[in-house]
Protein: Sugar ABC transporter ATP-binding protein
Organism: Nonomuraea marmarensis
Amino acid sequence: MQAAATVRALSKRFGSTQALDSVSLSFAVGEVHGLVGENGAGKSTLGKAIGGLYHPDSGDIEIFGHAVRRWDTRRAQEAGVVLIAQELCLVPDLTVAENVFLGREKRTFGVLHPGLLGRYRELEQVCGFGLPPDAPVGTLSIADQQKVEIMRALAREARIIVMDEPTSSLTADEAGRLHEIMRWLRSRGTTVIYVTHFLDDVLANCDRVTVMRDGRVIRTAPTAAETKASLVEAMLGEPADVLLPERPAPPPPGTPPVAEMREVHSGTAVRGVSLLVRPGEIVGLAGLVGSGRTEIARVLFGCDPVDAGQILFRGAAVTGASPRASIARGMAMIPEDRRAQGLVLLRPTLENVSLPHLGGFSRAGVLSRRAERAAVSELIERLGVRPAELDGDVAVYSGGNQQKVLFAKWLLGAPALLILDEPTRGVDVGAKSRIYQLIVEIAQAGTGVLLISSELEEVIGLSHRVHLVRGGSIIGEVPAKDATVDDLLQRLFDVPTSASTGGTP
Ligand SMILES: Nc1ncnc2c1ncn2[C@@H]1O[C@H](COP(=O)(O)OP(=O)(O)OP(=O)(O)O)[C@@H](O)[C@H]1O
Ligand SMILES: [Mg+2]
């Protein structure tokens, strides 16, 4: 096996956290190599060390047989190593095409040079993402921004690409296309290091897989020799299943809704949506990415204007909606894009979690620091945030642990309506079960939950009712306990799935 990248005894410590503990590992030329492990296992740290973003404390990195010295992102790029980080890193004011060629080509007076559009079209041929090259990146959805990052890595003609959770906001279709791109890269001899929590994707698309735990390599094996269960066991150190807890009892018939949307229109993304959520009820929105699920949540939460129709909250028509007003009324939303919308990365965990709730911890205007700490601490514990450290900046947490902190922030307020947009994206199998359990407990305590998830098992398993969303409208409702993933998929795509061929219509 010819090695593209080899790391030997690589160690990296952050404060008291040993993020990498003598990691030795080799990535072959022209292989797609999966990297899996629990939140905080060290996957991103390893990727960043290879990509030149982090300096290891000790150990060696070899790229195509040459030991690297004074490694940084620029040198890494010159050596053909490109990192697509978990935290997307684009310039919002520049266009798609400009971001794709950023740092590669000169721009004259802000104008992209004409040869580049041709080059852009070639890349588009390979990717088929269909992004508008002239749109400012800041106006794109997270999923589209992820595609820009992928195109940029291709534009750099990388020989080694580290992709850190590149599919976390892509549709199944788009993820499929990315997997094709990976195969195409492999056929050209490029090495792809693929970090993901989607174990099925690893098994289907990688040649080999490395499992990490607590900063160490547990093992590297051909994917053919692994199963989902064997990977989970290696990740956690014990066998485990993602357990869907039992759904809470539905609210009694006739219970008035906590929130209701009546024929709501907003821009072009939400078209005549009517739905209601009762206290203690979990209502799912299932749809493909881009179907309008997130936009429905945004209007309900007051992020986007209501152009026509009405929103009612606790029986009263909502006017003058804004996220701030919604929070004051008793709503909470865990947004899809945790970095941009949810957390203040350079502030301590404690502050991030308790910020919106300080009123609740003050008595006669005096803030009870002790009550605040105790409440936050309990949640951090229950969610399994690691390290369970209240005073460090949120920025230092691994991606999945940031997601858990965001969750804690909104749970603390015991809202009347909780809107969850992809609540388990990027969290590991253990945390998933914990988050499911919490959602059920919140509903049991009387909170109405609106749940958006691309993982249909999750929507079906937790919700009482599931609305099907397509083209900004609700095209149907199914009682979740009778639904199957295949049913939902078929109705969402509106095409017969393979499972249905030969079946009754
Ligand atoms: N810049 C940093 N400062 C301090 N600690 C850090 C920093 N980066 C990572 N860590 C810590 O190092 C450990 C490994 O983090 P890393 O981001 O590599 O995990 P990961 O495997 O990518 O997890 P996830 O699946 O959640 O993305 C974590 O405990 C994390 O809190
Ligand atoms: Mg990570």
About this structure: The chain has three domains: 3-236, 241-330+415-505, 345-411. Residues 496-505 have pLDDT under 50 and may be disordered. Residues 14, 17, 19, 37, 39-45, 86, 387, 396-401 surround adenosine-5'-triphosphate (ligand 1) (CB under 6 Å).
